[in-house]
Structure formats: C-alpha cells, structure tokens
Design a protein that fits this description.
This protein is of the alpha/beta class. Helix content is 47%, strand content 14%. The chain has an 8-stranded mixed sheet with strand order 3-2-1-4-5-6-7-8, sandwiched between helices. It is globular, with a radius of gyration of 20 Å. The structure holds nicotinamide-adenine-dinucleotide (NAD).
Length: 285
C-alpha cells in the first residue's frame, strides 16, 4: 500500500508539527481540528516556522512554498474519506480519542490506516472501538516534531504486520528513525524517561540534593543535554504526573508510585514552564 494523502487530526503542538513534516516530505496533507481558531493557529504556526527556516537559510523560499502547497486546512472530519492514512493528535483523553476513531472507522475506506500519536493510552483499547483493529497503530512522535528524530511505532495486540511495515516505511519517508514497540503502559520512551524524572523528584523530596544539583548530576555526569527537573518543567508536571499514574495503575508495581512532591506541585498549579513555576521559575510564561 502506498501512502499519498494523509489527514492529521488536532492542530495543536504535536498535530501541527506532524502535518508540517508530512507536507515537507511531499505527502498531501489535510490538517483538521474541531476548533476553528485552533486550526487557524496551527496553520499559522507552520507558516511562521517555515518562514523562520527560510530566514535562517535552512530551507529555500521554493521549499517553503512547496510545503504549503501540500498542506490544506480541513473543517470537517469527513474529509478523511479519501485519505490513505489518518494520524490522530487530539487531546490525551480516551473518550475524545475513541469518539474520533469511531467516526473515522465510519467515514474512511476499510484499507485506510488509522494511527494515534497518544503518549500513554493503550493502542489496543483505541483499536477495539473500530472494525479494523489490524489497521490501527501507534505513531508516537517526539516534541518538537520537526526536530526530533524518533518515532515509536506501537503495535496494538491486533495490529497486522502489513500495517506495521507501511508505517515503518512512512516514518523513514519522513526522515525519521522508528523503533518497534509493543503496547504496554508508557510504551518504551515514557516507561524509561518518566521513572527517571520521578526518581529525580524523589532525590529532591528526600533531601539527597538540591534541584540545581540533581540537574547538574545528570547533565555533567551523564552528558544529558538537559537535567531531568528542567525537562520535567518543559514537558509539564501535570503530564509527568499523569503518565506516572498510567504506569503505576497499568503495571501495578509500587516502584512507579508518583512522588508526593510532584503531586503537591501539580495541586498547587505549579505545572512547569507553561504556568511560570515548576522546579524553576519562568518570567516569560
Ligand atoms: P494540544 O492541546 O496542543 O492540541 C490538541 C488539539 O486537539 C487542540 O488544538 C484541540 O482543539 C484539538 N481537539 C480536541 N478535541 C478534538 C476533536 N474531537 N477533534 C479534533 N480536534 C480536537 O495537545 P498536544 O500537546 O499537541 O498533544 C496531542 C497528542 O499528542 C496527545 O495525545 C498527547 O499525549 C500526544 N503527545 C504530546 C507530546 C507533547 O510533548 N506535547 C509528545 C508526544 C505525544
């Protein structure tokens, strides 16, 4: 099966990045969002990023124009009717995602592959609301999508080998490197990253070292580009807590219990960079 036309659903941070990368790689892309203002903002964000790349001579003006020529907004989910692939990147909520997948199952031809960019929800459960669980798959891009190399390709229980191969090839066509992952809580990336961040928070909570020193240990001692607490602020402490809860509940092991300090910060509204305060303070939030 050859992918030519793609719909990306959700024009937020991730969806707009995915749509940009797909259009830049020559696919015909429709970007859809149920919120008109969010859709326009997403389209403008892509234009702005491409213009910045032109200004920095990373791409030519023609490349920018070609990318935009491959990208169109869609105000109706039913426009997915002639797409070969749909990549869903709406908010991280099971009810919202399953409602989208049920509609997609009705409006798209049976060969259309339905992918989700979820960072934590079970692919198998999303696939189960459709009549084509063999053609449902996880395509977990990293943020920011145009910059990050990795795509976790997640096989649900019933995802077929054919679907997996098409998405693996598609990821390569986007200039990304994919890894094959099975459907377990947190997949691979968050299964490894989040417990490390949680442990860094425990180190602060138990007075092992200060916030700054915990970050220094991992930056200077392990050559991480960013300390785990800086990274947690960047991801959003609410997101970190949510994923730890998914791991704790899904794997049933007390080693995944979220640190009480993380819970306390989230209840106080200290969500990291986006709220102006997390483990660090941010003036420009
Ligand atoms: P976001 O809040 O920036 O964007 C979500 C968009 O979905 C919004 O524009 C919203 O209007 C739209 N939306 C909501 N319900 C919809 C519906 N029913 N139909 C169409 N559009 C709808 O969120 P985001 O950060 O881009 O995350 C999107 C997905 O990507 C989530 O599943 C998230 O877990 C996953 N993800 C996020 C990151 C990250 O770092 N932000 C990384 C990897 C994966």
């Amino acid at each position: 099966m050859k992918i030519k036309k793609i719909m990306v659903i959700g024009a937020g941070q991730m969806g707009s990045g995915i749509a940009q990368v797909c259009a830049q790689s020559g696919f015909n892309v429709l970007l859809h969002d149920s919120n008109k203002a969010a859709l326009e903002k997403g389209m403008n964000r892509i234009e702005g990023l491409l213009q910045r790349a032109v200004d920095k001579t990373r791409i030519t003006k023609t490349e920018k124009e070609n990318t935009l020529a491959h990208l169109n907004p869609s105000y109706d989910l039913r426009d997915a009717k002639d797409c070969d692939l749909v990549i869903e990147a709406v908010i991280e909520n099971m009810d919202v995602k399953t409602a989208v997948f049920q509609t997609l199952d009705e409006v798209t031809p049976e060969q259309t592959i339905l992918a989700t960019n979820t960072s934590s929800l079970p692919i198998t459960e999303i696939a189960a609301v459709t009549n084509r669980p063999d053609r449902v798959i996880g395509m977990h891009f990293m943020n920011p999508v145009p910059v990050m190399q990795l795509v976790e390709v997640i096989r649900g229980l019933q995802t077929s080998d054919g679907t997996y191969e098409v998405i693996k090839k598609m990821s390569e066509d986007l200039g990304k490197t994919s890894v094959e992952v099975n459907d377990f809580p947190g997949f691979a990336a968050n299964r490894i990253l989040m417990p490390m961040i949680n442990e860094a928070i425990y180190a602060v909570y138990e007075g092992v070292a200060s916030v700054e020193d915990v970050d220094k240990v991992m930056k200077l001692g392990m050559n991480h580009p960013m300390g785990p607490l800086t990274l947690a602020d960047f991801i959003g402490l609410d997101t970190c807590l949510y994923i730890m809860e998914v791991l704790h509940e899904g794997l049933g092991d007390s080693k995944y219990r979220p640190c009480p300090l993380l819970k306390k910060y989230v209840s106080a509204g200290w969500l990291g960079k986006k709220s102006g305060r997390g483990f660090y303070q941010y003036e420009d939030a």
